[in-house]
Amino acid sequence: TPHIVIAIDGPAGAGKSTIGKLLAARLGALYIDTGAMYRTVALKGFRLGVIRPDHPPEPLIPEQEAQLTQIAQATEITLAGDPFHLQVFADREDVSSDIRLPEVSRYASIVSAVAGVRSALVAQQRRMGAEGTVVMDGRDIGTHVFPDADVKFFLDASVETRTERRYNEQRARGIECTREQTRLDVLERDRRDYNRAVSPLRRADDAIWLDTSTLSPEQVLEKMLSLIHHRL
Ligand code: C5P
User: Which ranges carry the Cytidylate kinase domain (predicted)?
Assistant: First the structure.
């Protein structure tokens, strides 16, 4: 069977996971949410007291970086279920809902700047991607994890659209938040993801750039399917 890798990168709220799931379902591919892996390390770091909410979380000191790297290396992260009922396990504990909390989003973007954390998770992602046809969603999939991916997409949208999507998503999960707080979180995460030293978020030269601001998920999906068929 052909083994195809489709990379989807872009900032928070650009539609990567919504579209990635639809695309995986249509292609009969495995959907791999790499953000969930960084979130899991952040959640564990928070629970173990490596990241402390009562301190300014940045900059991390070398000892924290070493502890977070150790967590990334030692935690068995499992992504299970079909694309629409994705479950995330950390050493067999179901962390699917805890990793979506807004503070975990923020910590994930801090933790993901640690080189040791990235190399541990990237190694795992490469193993997952070797298992079959995959749709992998993240920030550095087309640039670093799978630079030879068969098709690469870079999804983007305006800050307003991305804020609105994140806000609705959080409200639907029962998370208390305001639009303004959500907008600040999105901007803060953009700043970290675009500016970190290791594998910053950027479009790979050969990635197809799509602005999803004014498109429905179905419209984005149709565009991507036709581009994929054209390329393969
Ligand atoms: O995609 P999601 O919002 O779940 O990702 C959470 C955070 O994890 C991002 O803000 C980013 O800092 C980090 N991340 C990353 N590289 C990836 C996926 C996520 O640095 N491939």
Answer: 6-229
